[in-house]
Amino acid sequence: MILRSSLPAVLTLGLLLTAGCKKETAAPKARPPRPVLVAEAVSRDVPLYRDEVGKCAAYETVMIQPQISGAITEIYFQDGAEVKKGDQLFTIDPRPFEAALTMAEASLEGNLAKAAFDEAQLKRNKDLRKNNAVALQALDSAVASARASAAAVLSDKAAVETAKLNLAYSSIRAPITGRASRRLVDVGNVVEANKTQLLLIQRQDPIYIDFTVPESELHRVRSYKAAGTLRVEASFPDAPEMKREGTFDFFDSGVQEDAGVVRMRAVMKNEDRLFWPGQFVKVRLLLDTLKDTVLVPYDALQISKRGPYVYVLKDDSTVELRPVKPGQQHGDEVVLLEGVKAGERVVTTGQVALSPGAKVAVAQSETKPQ
Questions:
Q1: Is the Cα torsion angle 120, 122, 127, 133 positive or negative in sign?
Q2: How far apart are CA 11 and CA 22, in angstroms?
Q3: By three-state DSSP, how is residue 222 classified?
């Protein structure tokens, strides 16, 4: 009786064990493909460059100062205006200098008359001396008087020229073409010769771009300059699309010992006044052109403890982890010197969930880099 009543329980236990064994031996479900975005690596010529920080400087700078002392009576320009070489800027009261010129001319006329008289007297004394009709002392006196009168004439002529020059200095004109700063004096101010500052004029077209490079890069830059491939490009950090190419101007005569850098300069056309003196800009030294270079979107580049790498999409829709050697960045792209060939597709989005050999599904192909 005991054995018969235990049979259902034994059968039930056997069925449960059998079900448990079947559950343990069931095949695991395959992971679904990971969605990714990919882009094709392209081959293109790109510039080899070096970026530095530069500062704009006026091509010519002149601080206007008076060459005579006096009161300002007229101002002929607006603050910040463009002035041309020869334009009148200020007038210093000319009346004292007109009077000085008149006095110098009058003195000259008087001494010219005296010089003519003394010359005639000398001629008469020479003629009389031939006949011993005049003493030798009288002749010597006539010679001295003629020479003194001639010297006085020369002095008066110099005084006239000085007076004319001072009168001309009363009209202050622009020595260069450029942009005027704000005026530093007003009408009625009395200015002092060669001391009072009146106005700053800066020539802005063309314009200088001053920058430095480390002394360790000097030989490299000089070699590209000698090869004729060196060019300079300037732009704004907050507006990289606003850029302009210029010509390299000069290397400084030595290395700045305190900073270990070499000063350099480029010249840019600036008719539209894109650049302003004193403004900081981004300077790109275009050293050379790299031919047939492989580029991929910068988002494809990943970094691990073993170095940089990208995921390359294979024909069977799996990915391969490929170590690479990156070069310079060009906008949203980066140069790959090793590891990827043109035409191969690299993963640009979705790398976090990937591992080598993982199956992927391309959700959308990105636009091919240009």
A1: positive
A2: 17
A3: helix
Residue 330 near residue 295 (C-beta atoms within 8 A):
yes
Name the pTM for this structure: 0.73
Distance from C-alpha of 229 to C-alpha of 188, rounded to nearest angstrom: 57
Helix (H) or strand (E) holding 151: helix 136-169
Q: What is the rounded distance in angstroms from the CA atom of residue 108 to the CA atom of residue 273?
A: 52
The pLDDT profile of the chain, 370 residues, written as one tens digit per residue, is: 344 444 344 434 444 445 554 445 555 566 788 999 999 999 999 989 999 999 999 999 999 999 999 999 999 999 999 999 999 999 999 999 999 999 999 999 999 999 898 888 878 777 777 777 677 777 778 788 889 989 999 999 999 999 999 999 999 999 999 999 999 999 999 999 999 999 999 999 999 999 999 999 999 999 999 998 899 999 998 888 899 999 999 999 999 988 899 999 999 999 999 999 999 999 999 999 889 999 999 999 999 999 999 999 999 999 999 999 999 998 899 999 999 999 999 999 998 889 999 999 998 655 454 4
| Of 45, 38, 43, the residue nearest 300 (C-alpha) | 38
Which pairs with CB-CB distance under 8 Å and at least 24 residues apart come from 74-80?
Answer: 74/187, 75/183, 75/186, 75/187, 77/180, 77/183, 77/199, 78/180, 79/180, 79/181, 79/182, 79/183, 80/179, 80/180, 80/181, 80/182
